[in-house]
Amino acid sequence: MRRNQGGLLSDGAYLLLFIFSFICIVYMAGDPDRYMYNIIFLNVAFLIAIITYFTNVTTGLILNILFIFGYGTYVLYTTVVQGALVSAQNYVWLLFTPMLTLITWMMTQANHKLQNENARLQKLNSSLATMDEHTDLKNNLSFQKDAQTFIALSTRYQIPLTLVVIGVKYWEEIQRLITREQMTETVYAITQFSLSSIRNNDSLYMLNSDNPTWGLLLFTDREGANVVIERLRQRNREMNESMDRSKRNVELNLRIGAYQFDPETSQSPLEFLALARKQLEYDV
Asked: Which InterPro entries has this protein been placed in (predicted)?
């Protein structure tokens, strides 16, 4: 599998950081007489690197220029005033500090690329996903695609088509009284008895997982949908009667609305869904 540029840059930056750290350790261990001197400049180099990591490379370059100017002034002072000799050791930190800043900038760029790639993939996944992750039901996107086919079949062969929308009464208040685990179990339980209440050629969808809303596409008329609705209400009552009060002491009641497709009032799946949702307002 081909690796992306962000991954290669990140691996290279971390490898260079390990190599740089090893070189610093070897260099400082080989000159114990200048240990405190090297520790001070190592701290300065890492301070500049940290600032670069949390800002940008321009800030890092400016700080490196200031460091080189200040360090050059210090070397000039020790040479002219104190009469110290200029050796190769005086140039080591002039190389180490910009190198560490460059490595840090590479790490920053790699992280940004990986974050952007992750955000792009998450956006792509959400736009292409057709299944709800909690219930394994088809989601709203899948509903819109399937509803177009159902509507076409209903129109062509004059088969009655009804959309049943199911919600939970007072869900916003209920979710404050139960735990997240109980919420997940509740949604799953409603999903299961909804599946058991329909025929194999009918389809159940999770239209909204935040405020649980299910949709049922039924090849039947409004009266036939009433049979399914009554079956759902009966299963709902049975669930409330059999629930374990020690685990959940809140009864759940369903809001159910149904609308039979009419080509004169709804031409698209979204209009069909909007009219069915409106029927929920009458179930109080």
From this structure: GGDEF_dom, Nucleotide_cyclase, Rev_trsase/Diguanyl_cyclase
